[in-house]
């Protein structure tokens, strides 16, 4: 007897098979799914059982429940990012670590890929110099890079003799003279990571180098951008869960209403910038006069109010309603301490020139900033600042986000914690173990991601 299926029934059956296959393939991409770790098994001449691989390398035995848990967690991360305005493509380009860093406050970290083992992280050549910021935080004290890190079984080394046994090697591109300074790779499973805290315009400090000279060398990226394999943003804003009491949050209201006695400030020691930011500041100064204070050596500013560069905080900034967070480059997601520390950290509203408005909308809380692109010019911005200065009710609206978001400064400036080395350790635990190489570095990091100012 032959059973005839309708066209609709056949279509449903095909869709069911395709959907099942797609889900299975997606699960295979996550390290929690029950398959052997490719980093260790790929080079073996004889097949090994899953149990043998796990026992040798300390991997906890994966289960279907672990895979389901990881898949559910990933969907939760993605849902939150969609709510913040990220596109599916942007989310797809982010590492698991990056997604977790933007999750609501208190979200548990992802499940570790490997347990019962330690990692060695080597900082190539420039470890002692970088220590001033990432270990000492511009103080005379030494702080543990693993303090309050979600993982702690990592060791830091500056000794080049550790190259052969390091699990990850961090290369600071800004201080690298040429590719010849890089060693010969001795381990295929070693993660080579390029680090840059500068915009693509200032990736290299020495010589006229090309990014293409470094093609095929690095496995992971490490920058302020959230689509880096190891994201190290200058700061973050994370949402406070609704069930958390706001008794410790609302204190900003009284402070803002009683301490903001000056209008706007800007502070800087670098008087350049491809976006003509200081020309914009000069125009604002001619319009606002004494209502705009320039601190630092640019435009004949006040050099005595806030001495010290990154090592000492500037308490005087707490008196201002607004801060000109004008970066030296208008590049993708380039938001520095000017936003997170000098503005948000001082209960001021940042006026941003740097990252695009779309970037700011995704990365920063709603109605928490002004953007230079929203104004026809300095005169329009000056008029709006004077309007908000006269209208307390409208000005306070730019602070109401503080009830729902928390600002996290973690870049080592002004005594704040630095999370750079912690993030490398976390990436070794949480990110995919799949092989990855940046064969064309400019496809990820390029001046094409930067634009001149519209002003």
TrEMBL record:
It is a single-pass type II membrane protein. Its main location: Golgi. Keywords: Glycoprotein, Glycosyltransferase, Golgi apparatus, Membrane, Signal-anchor, Transferase, Transmembrane, Transmembrane helix. Belongs to the glycosyltransferase 10 family. Pathway: Protein modification; protein glycosylation. It is an enzyme of class 2 (transferase). Residues 44-65 are annotated as: Disordered. It comes from the Eukaryota. Its EC number is 2.4.1.-. Gene3D superfamilies: Glycosyl transferase family 10, C-terminal domain. It is found in: Golgi apparatus, Golgi stack membrane. InterPro entries: Glyco_tran_10_C, Glyco_tran_10_N, Glyco_trans_10, GT10-like_C_sf. The keyword Amino-acid biosynthesis does not apply. GO terms for molecular function: fucosyltransferase activity. SUPFAM superfamilies: UDP-Glycosyltransferase/glycogen phosphorylase. Residues 259-443 form the Fucosyltransferase C-terminal domain. GO terms for cellular component: Golgi cisterna membrane. Residues 49-59 have a biased composition (Basic and acidic residues). It holds the Pfam family Glyco_transf_10. It comes from Lasius platythorax. This is Fucosyltransferase. Residues 118-235 form the Fucosyltransferase N-terminal domain.
């Amino acid at each position: 007897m032959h059973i005839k299926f309708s066209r609709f029934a056949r279509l449903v059956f095909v869709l069911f098979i395709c959907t099942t296959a797609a889900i299975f393939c997606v699960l295979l991409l996550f390290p929690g799914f029950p398959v052997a770790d490719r980093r260790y098994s790929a080079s073996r001449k004889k097949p090994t059982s899953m149990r043998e691989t796990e026992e040798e390398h300390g991997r906890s035995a994966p289960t279907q429940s672990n895979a389901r848990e990881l898949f559910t967690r990933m969907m939760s991360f993605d849902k939150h990012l969609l709510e913040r305005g990220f596109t599916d493509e942007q989310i797809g380009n982010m590492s698991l670590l990056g997604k977790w860093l933007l999750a609501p406050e208190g979200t548990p970290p992802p499940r570790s890929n490997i347990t019962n083992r330690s990692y060695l992280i080597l900082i190539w050549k420039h470890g002692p110099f970088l220590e001033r910021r990432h270990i000492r935080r511009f103080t005379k004290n030494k702080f543990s890079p693993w303090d309050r890190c979600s993982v702690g079984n990592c060791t830091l080394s500056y000794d080049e003799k550790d190259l052969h046994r390091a699990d990850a090697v961090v290369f600071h591109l800004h201080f690298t003279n040429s590719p010849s300074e890089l060693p010969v790779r001795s381990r295929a499973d070693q993660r080579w990571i390029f680090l840059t805290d500068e915009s693509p315009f200032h990736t290299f400090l020495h010589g006229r180098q090309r990014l293409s000279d470094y093609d095929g060398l690095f496995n992971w990226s490490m920058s302020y951008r959230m689509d880096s394999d190891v994201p190290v943003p200058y700061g973050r804003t994370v949402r406070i869960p609704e069930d958390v009491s706001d008794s410790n949050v609302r204190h900003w209201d009284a402070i803002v209403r009683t301490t903001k006695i000056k209008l706007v400030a800007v502070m800087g020691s670098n008087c350049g910038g491809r976006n003509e930011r200081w020309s914009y500041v000069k125009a604002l100064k001619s319009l606002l006069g004494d209502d705009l204070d320039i601190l630092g050596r640019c435009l004949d500013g006040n050099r005595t109010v806030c001495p010290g560069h990154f090592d000492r905080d500037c308490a005087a900034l707490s008196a201002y309603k607004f801060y000109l967070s004008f970066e030296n480059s208008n590049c993708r997601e380039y938001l520095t301490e000017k936003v997170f520390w000098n503005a948000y950290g001082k209960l001021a509203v940042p006026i941003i020139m740097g990252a695009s408005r779309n970037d700011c909308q995704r990365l920063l809380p709603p109605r928490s900033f002004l953007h230079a692109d929203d104004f026809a010019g300095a005169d329009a911005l000056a008029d709006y600042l004077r309007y908000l200065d006269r209208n307390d009710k409208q000005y306070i609206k730019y602070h109401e986000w503080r009830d729902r978001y928390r600002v996290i400064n973690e870049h080592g400036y002004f005594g704040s914690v630095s999370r750079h080395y912690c993030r490398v350790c976390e990436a070794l635990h949480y990110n995919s173990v799949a092989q990855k190489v940046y064969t064309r570095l400019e496809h990820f990091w390029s001046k094409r991601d930067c634009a001149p100012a519209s002003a």
